[in-house]
Amino acid sequence: MRLVRFIGARFWLVAWLLACWQILSARRILDPIFFPPPSQLGATFAALLSSGELGRGLSATLARTCLGLLVGVAGGGLVSLVLCVSPRLRIAEVGGIGSACRRMRTGNSVHVHRDGVAVVSRRRRAPLADVEVNSRMFTNLLPFAARFLINAEMDDAGILEPVACDCEYARAGMNWRMRDIYSYGNLTGQGITLMGSDIVRILESALPQRFGGGPGDYQLVEYDGARQSQLELRVSPRAGAESVAAVRDFLLREIRGCYGGALASRVWTHSDGLKAVIAEPFSTRSGKVLSLHLLGPKVEADHAS
To answer: What does pTM read for this prediction?
Structure first.
């Protein structure tokens, strides 16, 4: 009974609205060009339906809609393919930094998007490698940028230089490139970024409490391998750890609790990108032992001793 009352109330409401619409249109209170009366709409609909014109119009509209959808999907897929083939450099705080052309197959290089960002370099000592690096500083140029940045450092290093190239980017005015790009302040193993402070806390506190030893007995080294970045956990013999596999598994479990660590832990587990060895940690030229040791592409040979 309630359902009948509900439907009846709605029916009378719709009938009342249609009647008001009909009266207002007939008296031209509503412009009949934009609001033709319901009686005229019904008559026109019946005429189109009986003549078959309505079916032909619907078929044509449906065909155009499907064609537009097909073109949009194909075009979007082609653009996605081009973006996948052409690697890009992007920093969350800054936005798009650069894109690599077809000639940039080695050296970790990109053309700088000079229309959207200004990039300069300065020499400074990297806190997690204790060497001089070319730190990059960024300034936003676009009026709709997410943040207003002037010479902001993002703990990234690389060589900034002009490049002679005949690609589309160079013809568009992007004739500067950055090469040998790496991070000296964050752990970026296999495309995943983790805060260096989180990793240092695990290496200097959590691991010694679980397996013995102290700060300086556990060191995580990141360096550029032949195809991708590699991670090596070096455990000093002084720590007395009986199983490097247990140390590695514990480190992965602790990393899961960091921001972005759950994905990093899964990727490094499946790719076997994290190795653990019993060996003395690397020391810098000044004799320091850094818990998190980040080596750029040019620095590895200088520290692997």
So the answer is: 0.51
